[in-house]
Amino acid sequence: MAEAHGAGGADVVVTGLAAIAGTGWDLAALGERTAAGDPAFTPVTRFDAGRYRTDLAAQLPGDPVLADELVAILDRACAQAGLGADERVVSPLLVAVHGDPAVARLPESDRTGPGAIADAIARRAGLGPAPRAYMTACVAASTAVADAATMISHGRAHRVVVAAGYLVEQDNFALFDAGRSLATDGHVRPFSAGRQGMLLGDGVAAVVLESAEEAARRGATPVARIAGWGRAGDAHHITQPDPEGGGMTRAVTAALRKAGRVPADIGYINAHGTGTAQSDAAEAAALHRALGTEAARIPVSSSKSVHGHTLQAGGLLELAVTVHALRTGRLPVNAGYAGPDESLGLNLVLGRPWEREVDHALTVNSAFGGANTALVVARV
């Protein structure tokens, strides 16, 4: 069943946004490298990857600590939004991470499970009561954004802060290698002929969402608007996508309906685009079903071709890329392209960034178990 929300309610705006990835230590580096289609994949340095089918990932230098990076990125997003300590402490935190405090490297935690991570990050960042953790794999962050937007739209909160993080580590690297999902040729080639799979990447991001009325009251300057959101499951298979893209079709349709938009209004799609054969084909099928003839027109790219798959953080990192593209008018290149897959029928951004003024963009994500999310993002 798809989830959408009725018309009306408060407008949801972005007033703070910060991100780091294997592309570099700020959102500007992420935005510029994804725009140029400049992949960030290098040999893994945090563990011995010599036993695996590839040794590449998009990593930040050194051995960063996830908990520390989440707190730092929250500070940057809250500073951009102009939030003081008194405003932070009443702002709920939704955080998308792996559920093990040991992975986040929270040695001070005497609890287990994702709740311990959410509590610790909220406390260290000075954020509000009852923090919530999301673990729903590759839609964790985008689900958190949808929940935050719902809370604000329905008047249950004036402001919600969302953070997400994943840093490349051996357990997931080994799992995806065992599943033969990693690209052995060292390139992520979404929607391309010859695509071999995905590569992992670091990603940590945070966003401050609030009602337009609250932002205006505080004198904060919005950088984008979350115009619509939708979620749907297809319950097709534990790991394989529905070949017809049923869940994503319903999620996109719900997001458009919430935004009060039609497919012709969408000027760019930041696709999930993992570079795996089945997933890309299912996603293309969903876009054609949801968008009709417009699917062959709308520019499409997957920024995973540059920053890699950041798992629980993917939806938020890709939202950051989408906002950057709307603000700069430069649509990111679909890197790794090796030739057309005629069966997909998408208008891929190739060669160089496309200079376009886009008012509304779509960013979509999928996860194991058949979960799908879609966000409609508006330029302000």
Automatic annotation (TrEMBL):
List the record's Gene Ontology CC terms alphabetically: cytosol
Show the InterPro entries listed in the entry.
Beta-ketoacyl_synthase, Ketoacyl_synth_C, Ketoacyl_synth_N, PKS_Beta-ketoAc_synthase_dom, Thiolase-like
Which protein, by its recorded name, is this? 3-oxoacyl-[acyl-carrier-protein] synthase 2
Q: Name one Pfam family in it.
A: Ketoacyl-synt_C
> Which PANTHER family is this protein grouped with?
3-OXOACYL-[ACYL-CARRIER-PROTEIN] SYNTHASE, MITOCHONDRIAL (PTHR11712:SF336), POLYKETIDE SYNTHASE-RELATED (PTHR11712)
Q: Taxonomy-wise, where does this protein's organism fall, top ranks first?
A: Bacteria, Bacillati, Actinomycetota, Actinomycetes, Pseudonocardiales
The entry lists its GO molecular-function terms as: 3-oxoacyl-[acyl-carrier-protein] synthase activity
GO annotation terms (biological process): fatty acid biosynthetic process
Q: Which Gene3D superfamilies match?
A: 3.40.47.10
UniProt KW keywords: Transferase
Record's keyword annotation contains Transferase: yes
What family, per the record? Belongs to the thiolase-like superfamily. Beta-ketoacyl-ACP synthases family.
Question: Where is the chain membrane-spanning?
Answer: none
The species this protein belongs to is: Actinokineospora globicatena
**Domain Ketosynthase family 3 (KS3): residue ranges:** 1-379
